[in-house]
Design a protein that fits this description.
The complex is a heterodimer of chains A (113) and B (114).
Chain A lengths: L4 E3 L2 E5 L4 E6 L7 E7 L6 E6 L5 E4 L2 E6 L4 E6 L8 E8 L8 E2 L3 E6 L1
Parallel strand pairs in A: 2-11
Antiparallel strand pairs in A: 1-3, 3-8, 4-5, 4-9, 6-7, 7-8, 9-10, 9-11
Chain B lengths: L3 E4 L2 E4 L5 E7 L5 E7 L6 E8 L2 E4 L6 E3 L9 E3 L8 E8 L9 E2 L3 E5 L1
Parallel strand pairs in B: 2-11
Antiparallel strand pairs in B: 1-3, 3-8, 4-5, 4-9, 5-6, 7-8, 9-10, 9-11
Classes of the chains: A mainly beta (113), B mainly beta (114).
Chain lengths: 113, 114
């Protein structure tokens, strides 16, 4: 069974805290690992697409790392702000050009002012 | 502004009724996807299409049907054979044949049973 797992399921932090989430995926047939941010009442928005083992990507206070050999990716948020409150989804592409993604169940982050 | 438009935002289905969810994109993307979200679960792929007049079943295609007569449009029909249709449905698109492209999503349709 090809499964993508995210942990924790939910997280509550104070404004200014740094936090990180984990995405675990099958280590075979790896093509790409995607991260999306999904705010309430909006559509999911792409954060990163990672393709190479050891990749590190950064967008402002958010960064991600990738380990394809052991099948995990970390998403870090430095100095969380209330506007970071959202569900963060990771998705594994093990199918190549079909673009078929298998999504994790998401990590919901709530940042309290 | 380019994007994906899903309609309606909310939809109610009676027993034995087929309903169709609309998905239109003006991004000139070849590939389009339908996902279903249930509480506590990740998005699950229902159907996808990489080119006009062609589509493939995803992981949970039973009880659903699609068509792809135009590049811009990928409607999803939830048939009466789908016994548990209450869920949130998301449509997405991307450039075809490029595995490292992000998918663009619509705002979703929430389907409930009357």
């Amino acid at each position: 069974i090809l499964n993508v797992e995210q942990s924790p399921q939910s997280l509550h932090v104070q404004e200014g805290d740094s936090t990180n989430f984990t995405c675990s995926f099958p280590s075979s047939n790896f093509y790409a690992l995607h991260w999306y941010r999904w705010e309430t009442a909006k559509s999911p928005e792409a954060l990163f697409v990672m393709t190479l083992n050891g990749d590190e990507k950064k967008k402002g206070r958010i960064s991600a790392t990738l380990n394809t050999k052991e099948g995990y990716s970390y998403l870090y948020i430095k100095g969380s702000q209330p506007e970071d409150s959202a569900t963060y989804l990771c998705a594994w592409n093990g199918s190549g050009n079909t673009g078929k993604l298998i999504f994790g169940q998401g990590t919901t982050l709530q940042v309290k002012p | 502004d380019g994007g994906i438009t899903q309609s309606p935002k909310y939809l109610f289905r009676k027993e034995g009724q087929n309903v169709t969810l609309s998905c239109e994109q003006n991004l000139n993307h070849d590939a389009m996807y339908w996902y279903r979200q249930d509480p506590g679960q990740g998005l699950r792929l229902i159907y996808y299409s990489q080119i006009v007049n062609d589509f493939q079943k995803g992981d949970i295609a039973e009880g659903y049907s699609v068509s792809r007569e135009k590049k811009e449009s990928f409607p999803l029909t939830v048939t009466s054979a789908q016994k548990n249709p209450t869920a949130f449905y998301l449509c997405a698109s991307t450039r075809e044949g490029v595995p490292n492209q992000s998918q663009h999503f619509g705002d979703g349709t929430r389907l409930s049973i009357l």
